[in-house]
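Data deposition worksheet. Section B asks for the primary sequence of the deposited chain exactly as it was used as input, without tags or linkers unless they were present during the calculation. Section C holds the resulting structure in token form. Section D is free text for depositor observations; keep each observation to a single sentence. Incomplete worksheets are returned to the depositor.
Section A, Depositor: J.P.
Section B:
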Amino acid sequence: MADNNLSQFNTDVVFTAPYAVVLKNKTTGQQQLNATIKFNSGDLISPFYAGETHSTPNYLTVQVGEHTHITLQPSHLQYINHSCKPNAFFNTDTMELIALDTIEAGEEITFFYPSTEWKMDQPFVCQCGKPECLQLIQGAAYLSNEILQHYRLTNFIQEQILQKV
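Section C:
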């Protein structure tokens, strides 16, 4: 759940990568991944791979198949929070995290959870604060095709949508 109002004065840096830092809010304990360099739309932010594979989802996994959910490696990618106006996308076919828009140095990196998740293990009320906020985030299965057409989705999610019709 992205909170773009976090003040850097109220955060600790808990991990540093060449292109990003994990920040931890001192008050809430929430962590997020922020870019340390600028990315343009289409840029590769990071390759990733499966750490562990699970048959059921949990709050740390990304869905890559009907009964296949992976933990992300490098592990700092798990701190990419949800936004209803994401600036990044997990391409699970190429195993690349891609910038959807320009991401400035210092900006939080976010993705749209339903872009990879059909039915989420832990639905939540979104607090991204974006005008297009969908409020309840449960997975792509619970969103209309009209809403989903505004997002880049993994091939797995696109296949699930076709089966739903």
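Section D:
The chain has two helices and 13 strands.
The first strand starts at residue 11 and ends at 16.
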